[in-house]
């Protein structure tokens, strides 16, 4: 059960998630963030793929575009270019985004698409019964790694900072206020904004639990002297994982977005632009036979 939040972004009472799932905290924080920004549901588009995280848009009022596993970001890119007036929020899990969607993750950062990307990071494939994901810690035993994960866990924050993403953050599903503030900051940022959200999976991940995170997370904003515009420092901080785990905005800069390179073409939603019928007919004529 999920309690309804606000009015415009009311959320569903029934979901398919396990009791205690970290997705509930993310759903509530997202609703709170959107209400706090004063947005209307007609101004927001959720894009998701496959997985428990990908179900999130099903449980909150708004426009939803579901796509294929790992294909959330290219679909969100097309939607943003077609209608720049929309706040496009891409949503997926660490499996969806860093495994199947890993190549799209890299290039969305390079292009600096003006979208917000929320990754529910529970370090397993939750929908398909807890197999290891790219984010699983070394040694973690799962159905697909009975001897323990042998590979080092993928570091999305270090990757994003290396590629000079404009907004790189981490938050925690168990801290709704922090997550809500971080989502608001990501939406207000002009450019690609990543939030990797630490999300306990109470069914399949018995290591990265609420207790595990509560005893370790700390807020970078409360660390004296931390400069989120200092790229080398942000990159080094992204590798801190163990007894202390930082959350907050690691890195933030301004640089031209993908839309900026297209100029006036994307400033007005395509549906409001007048088509050039002569140009379209010219293209069709190229494919005529005989």
CA radius of gyration is 20 Å
Here the CATH topology equals Rossmann fold
Tell me which CATH architecture applies here: 3-Layer(aba) Sandwich
Range of strand content: 15-25%
Low-confidence stretches: none
Total helical segments? 10
CATH H level, superfamily name: Thiamin diphosphate (ThDP)-binding fold, Pyr/PP domains
User: What is the H/E string?
Assistant: HEEHEHHEEEHEHEHEHEHH
Question: Outline, from the CA principal axes?
Answer: globular
The structure class reads alpha/beta
In what order do the strands lie side by side in the largest sheet?
A: 2-1-3-4-8-7-10-9
Largest sheet, strands/sense/barrel:
8 strands, mixed
Number of DSSP strands? Answer: 10
From the N-terminal CA to the C-terminal CA, the straight-line distance is 64 Å
Q: Name the helicity range.
A: 25-40%
Overall average pLDDT: 92
Number of self-contained structural domains: 1
Any idea of the CATH class?
Answer: Alpha Beta
Task: Write up what this structure looks like.
- The structure is a single chain.
- 30% of the residues lie in helices and 17% in strands.
- The chain is of the alpha/beta class and 290 residues long.
- The protein has a single domain (23-263), classed as Thiamin diphosphate (ThDP)-binding fold, Pyr/PP domains (Rossmann fold, 3-Layer(aba) Sandwich).
- The strands form 2 sheets. Strands 2-1-3-4-8-7-10-9 form an 8-stranded mixed beta sheet, sandwiched between helices. A two-stranded antiparallel sheet has the order 5-6.
- Strand 5 (124-125) and strand 6 form a beta hairpin.
């Amino acid at each position: 059960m999920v309690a309804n939040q606000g009015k415009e972004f009311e959320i569903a009472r029934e979901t398919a998630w396990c009791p205690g799932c970290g997705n509930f905290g993310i759903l509530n924080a997202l609703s709170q963030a959107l209400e706090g920004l004063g947005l209307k549901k007609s101004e927001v588009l959720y894009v998701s793929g496959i997985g428990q995280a990908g179900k999130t848009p099903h449980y909150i009022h708004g426009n939803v575009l579901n796509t294929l596993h790992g294909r959330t970001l290219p679909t969100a890119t097309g939607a943003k270019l077609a209608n720049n007036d929309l706040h496009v929020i891409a949503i997926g899990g660490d499996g969806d985004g860093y495994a199947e969607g890993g190549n799209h993750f890299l290039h969305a950062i390079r292009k600096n698409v003006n979208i917000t990307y929320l990754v529910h990071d529970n370090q397993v494939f939750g929908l398909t019964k807890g197999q290891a994901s790219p984010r699983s810690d070394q040694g973690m035993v799962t159905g697909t790694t009975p001897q323990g994960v042998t590979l080092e866990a993928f570091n999305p924050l270090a990757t994003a900072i290396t590629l000079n993403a404009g907004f790189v953050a981490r938050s925690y599903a168990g801290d709704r206020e922090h997550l809500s503030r971080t989502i608001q900051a990501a939406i207000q940022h002009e450019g690609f904004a990543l939030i990797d959200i630490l999300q306990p999976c109470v069914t399949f991940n018995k290591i990265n639990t609420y207790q595990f995170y509560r005893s370790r997370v700390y807020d970078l904003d409360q660390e004296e002297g931390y400069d989120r515009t200092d790229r080398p420092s942000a990159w080094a901080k992204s590798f801190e994982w163990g007894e202390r785990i930082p959350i907050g905005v690691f890195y933030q800069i301004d640089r031209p977005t993908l839309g900026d390179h297209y100029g006036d073409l994307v400033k007005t939603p395509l549906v409001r632009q007048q088509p050039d019928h002569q140009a379209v007919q010219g293209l069709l004529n190229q494919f005529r036979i005989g």
